[in-house]
Amino acid sequence: MNPILDELKVFTGNGHPALAQSVCDYLKIPLGKAEVFKFANDNSFARIHENIRQRDVFIVQPTCFPVNDNLMELLIMIDACKRASAGRITAVVPYYGYGRTDKKDQPRVPITARLVADLLTAAGADRLLTVDLHAGQIQGFFNIPVDELTTLPIMGEYFEAKELQDLVVVAVDIGISKKARDMAERLGAPLAIIEKRRTGNDDKNETMNVIGDVQGKIALTFDDEIDTGGTIINAAKALSEQGVREVFCCVTHPVLSQDAAERMGKSQFKEVVVADTIPLSAEKRNGKFTVLSVAPLLGEAIYRIHKGLSVGDLFSKTV
Fold it and tell me: Is 38 a catalytic site residue?
C-alpha cells in the first residue's frame, strides 16, 4: 500500500496498544502520540500530543478487561479529539464490551449494549468500526455509521490450509448458526448445531444435544467469543460423546475470564484458534492457542474509510 497522507491519524489507549501499532505498521504511518493514564484519585485522563485539527482520527481501543476502564478511556479520548477540532472521529472497537446485554430478556434488566452506543455517540464519535459483534442488531443501536468486520475470511484461510478430511463445522448455539453456516460453506463442510439451555446469569449453561451428523468426523466448533469457556468446553464434551475423532475450536474474541485459559488447556480441543481483537498474554496461551492477527483487516478498513472507498467491497471479495 502507498503511504497515506498526513490527514490520517491513529491513536490508542491502554486497551491493546500492540494491535494499534500493528495497524499502523500495515498502513505505514506512525502511531499517534498521546498519553492516557489514571490520576492518584482513580480518574482517567487523556491528552493528544499532536495537531489533529480537521484530521481524520481513528482511536483503536477494544473494551475488554478491565472493561469499564477501557471504555472510559475511549470516551475520554473521543472527547479530547472532538475538543481538539478533529475533522472526523472513528472509534475502532475490535471487541465491543457489554455486547451480550443486547436485549431485555428478563424483567427489570438494562440493555447495556444500547447504553454504550449512546455513550460513544454522545462523546463525539462519528463512526464505529468493530469486529464480529455478539448480536447483529447492535448496529441498529447507533445513529452513526457502523462498519462490522468479520474474521471469517482469516479463520477460513487458516483451516483451509490444514486440509482437514471429514470436517464438520459446529455452531455452539443457535444464535451463531448463520456465521457458522458461512464458515461451513467456505470450507465445503456440513453444519451441525449444539442446542443448549442457559440456567441463569452466572455464566453456567447446560448442553442439551447435537443437531446433525458428527460421528467419525473432525469437528470445528465456531463461536464469537470464549468467556468462561463453559459453553465451548461442554460443546466439545457433547461432540466427543457423539463419536467425533478430533475437535478444533475457532473463536474471534479470547475473553477468557477467570480460569478459562487453564480449562481450555485441559479440554478435549486439539487447537484453539482466536483473533488478537483482545490481548492474550503468554501465560494464557498454554500451547493450545493459535492467535491470528486482525491488523491487516482493520488497517485496510481504516484506509478505505479514510479514502471514501467501500468497506463492504473488502468484505465481499474476501468471504
Answer: no
